[in-house]
UniProtKB/TrEMBL annotation:
Keywords, ordered alphabetically: Coiled coil, Membrane, Transmembrane, Transmembrane helix
Lineage: Eukaryota, Fungi, Dikarya, Basidiomycota, Agaricomycotina
Residue stretches making up the T-SNARE coiled-coil homology domain: 200-262
CDD domains registered for this protein in UniProt: SNARE_Sso1
InterPro entries in the record: SNARE, Syntaxin, Syntaxin_N, T_SNARE_dom
Name of protein: Syntaxin-like protein
Coiled-coil parts of chain: 193-251
Membrane topology, record value: Single-pass type IV membrane protein
Amino acid sequence: MSYRAQQRQAAPPNGPSQSQSHELTNLDANGSRSLESQSGFLAEVTSVQNSIGVFSANVTRIGALNSRALDALRGDDAAIKNELDGLTAETRALSNELRDRIKRLQAAVLPGVPEKREKEMRQNQVALVRTKFTEALQTYQKVEQDSRNKSQQRIARQYRIVKPEATQEEINEVIASGQDQVFMQALTSSTRYDQSRSAYNEVQARAQDLKKMEQTLGELAQLFSDMALLIEQQNETVAAIENTAIDVEKNAGEGLKQTEVAVGIARRLRQKRWICFIITLIVVIILAAVLAVELTKK
């Protein structure tokens, strides 16, 4: 089931249900789910996982449509290609949406989350959805690569129909450049016209498919790059927080040492004050005794 079809099926006819109303309370002013609370964060994680499931289902369908398009007879493949183009565009939009939502989830991992346990939970959840999405992208990449290889093999077979003695280098050049001079030359020969014309039409169709596949593979490569960047950014953020924690602990240790030194100094000062007080008291007693003796003599 495609992403749009799932949305249509999930939409209730008479307004939002009680559970959907509860979800709406987690939406911010822009219509996105608020990620500040733990419940809002987990709800978004679940929603992203569901969307990844839809993305994977679309990829499976795209692979099947690619195979059908290759096997379809000329004139019967228009409907298949229209469905394939629509599903590919829909999946492209969904992949970009998932990338942006995962970015939002990762950005909500640390800021404003005081509890270490909750931070670790959020980090683990983001790593989970990021891994699932990357695996889905890898599957999509393999589907497109397999379809591209089959299309290239089909072009090679059609080229050899027109020019059986063609070398692999010539075939690779035709695939890479889309040149059709050989077919046009073969069309001028009446003995091979029908066969060459059919091969030419087949190659034209496959060349258009290859361009679309190359575009999709380029977009997937960019998404892989975006996911790798997210991992790097998270590692840098975690490392910075760990370094800050180490610095805080170090500064706290230094502060404790300074406090202990200050306490020791204060203790020694108190001891010295008591010693001075005792010495002063002894001197006073001695002076009082001497004064008393002198007064007694008089």
